[in-house]
Amino acid sequence: MNIRLFKPSLGKEELENIKESFDRSWIGLGPNVNKFEEEWAKFVGAATATGLNSATAALHLALKVFNFPKGKKVLVPSLTFSSTASAILYNDLIPVFVDSNPETLGMDLDDMKQKYDKDVVAVIPVHYAGHPVPMDELMPWAREKGLKVIEDCAHTSGSKYKGTPLGLWGDIGCYSFEEKKLMTTGDGGMMVTNQPELFKDVKAMRWVGIDKDNWKTAQSYTDVNKDAMHWFYELNVLGYKYNMNDLSAAIGLAQLKKLPEFNRRRGEIIQRYMDGLKGLDGIKPLLPYEPEKYVYQMFGIRAENRDDLMIYLKSKGVATGCHYTPLHMQPLFKSFNGSCSFIEKEADKFITLPLHADLTNEEVEYVIDKITDYKN
Ligand SMILES: Cc1ncc(COP(=O)(O)O)c(C=O)c1O
C-alpha cells in the first residue's frame, strides 16, 4: 500500500482543454482566464472574480486594495498556512495572532475581540479544513469596528454558511487551486467580491500594472481597429506578475465542472472515516465535521501519541500530515508576541489523514484498520 495524503484528480477533459490552448497557440493570460473568471464568479455567486497564480497572491492583493497605512494591525488565526500571515507582512502590516476555537479550530471569536485594539484595520478569518467560521457573529462585530474582512477560502470551494456562500460574507474572498486543494489548476487562485469598485485596479495589480486584454488586442489587430494605437498602455498602479495563465485556466475550467462530484465524494469519505473511527479510545475527529452541509479539504484526527501513530502509519504505507504548526510559534512570526494558549498545546495532537476524490473505499478501510490495529 502507498496511500497519498492528497492527490489531484485529473482526466482527459483537462487534457482536451489544454489541447485547445495549444491549438490556439495562446498559453499566457488570455481567453481561458477570462472564461474561468466568469464561471467562477457564477459558481460562487459573486459580482466579479479575478484569476491569479495563487491564493497567496490573492491574499496579498486583497489587503493591498485597501491601502492601509503602514504599521496597522490585522487579526489572523495562528492555525493557518504561512501565506495568510505572510500577506500581512507583504503589505507592511502587523499580524495579531488569534487562538482557535477548541471545537472547530477556526478563529476563536472571543480571543479575536480581546486582541482588538484601535490600530486593527482588518481581519482574515480562515475556514480551516473547510469548516466555516461563524461569519454571522464575526461580520456585525467587524462592521461595528469599521474593519475590512478578507476570507481565506483556500480550504473551501462551494460551501454556503447560513445561506451565504463562504467568500462572500466579507469584503473579499480568496480561493486556492494549488494541487492539494478541492480542485486544482496546478497552482492558481481566485479573488471574488460583491463590491466591484474594490477591484477597479486589481486586473492591473495582477499583471505588472497593465490593465489591458492582450488577447482582444491580438484578435482585432489587423482588421477591426486599423487605426487604433494597439501599443498604448498606461501604468497607474504598482503591479505584480501574479496573473493566472491560460494553461492553468484550461485545467480549472475542466476541474470546475467536476468540483460538485469531487466534493460529494469527499463528504462520503469523511463519513466513512467518522463511522470507522468512532469509539476508538484516544482518537477524536479533528473538528465537528458536517459533510452533508460543508465541503472539507482536510480530514484529520486528534490523537494523544501523535508522533508515534504517524510513524506507525508511515510504516504501513499511509501518508499523514500536520496542519499546522501554529504560526505564532514559527521563528518568522515569533517577534509578534502572540499568545494563543489553547492551540499551543493542542496542535501537537493533530494528524491529517488521506483525503482526495480518487481515494477508494478499500483505501479508506485500510487506513481505519491500521489506526484500529495500532490502538489494540
Ligand atoms: C489556509 C491557506 N491559505 C492560503 C494558502 C495559499 O494558497 P496557494 O498555495 O494557492 O498560494 C493555503 C495553501 O495551502 C492555505 O492552506
Write down the Rg.
22 Å
Alpha-carbon distance between the two ends: 21 Å
What ligands does this structure carry? pyridoxal-5'-phosphate
Total number of beta strands: 12
User: Can you say what the CATH homologous superfamily of the largest domain is?
Assistant: Type I PLP-dependent aspartate aminotransferase-like (Major domain)
Please give the count of helices: 12
Largest sheet: 7 strands, mixed
Oligomer: single chain
Keywords: Aminotransferase, Pyridoxal phosphate, Transferase
Active site: 181 (proton acceptor)
Protein name: UDP-4-amino-4-deoxy-L-arabinose--oxoglutarate aminotransferase
EC number: 2.6.1.87
Describe the structure.
- With 376 residues, the chain is of the alpha/beta class.
- It has 2 domains: 12-257, Type I PLP-dependent aspartate aminotransferase-like (Major domain) (Aspartate Aminotransferase, domain 2, 3-Layer(aba) Sandwich); 260-375, Aspartate Aminotransferase, domain 1 (Alpha-Beta Complex).
- The protein has 12 helices and 12 strands.
- The protein has helices at residues 12-24, 31-44, 55-64, 82-90, 109-115, 135-145, 202-206, 214-220, 246-277, 306-315, 341-346, 361-375, and strands at 48-52, 73-77, 94-98, 120-123, 148-152, 160-161, 164-165, 172-176, 189-193, 283-285, 299-303, 350-353.
- The protein has a 7-stranded mixed beta sheet, with helices on both faces.
- Strand 2, helix 4 and strand 3 (94-98) form a beta-alpha-beta unit.
- The longest helix is centred in the last third of the chain and has 32 residues, at 246-277.
- It starts with 11 loop residues before the first helix and ends with a helix.
- The model has no long low-confidence stretch (mean pLDDT 96).
- Bound molecules: pyridoxal-5'-phosphate (PLP).
- Pyridoxal-5'-phosphate binds at residues 54-56, 80-81, 83-84, 126, 152, 154-155, 176, 178, 189.
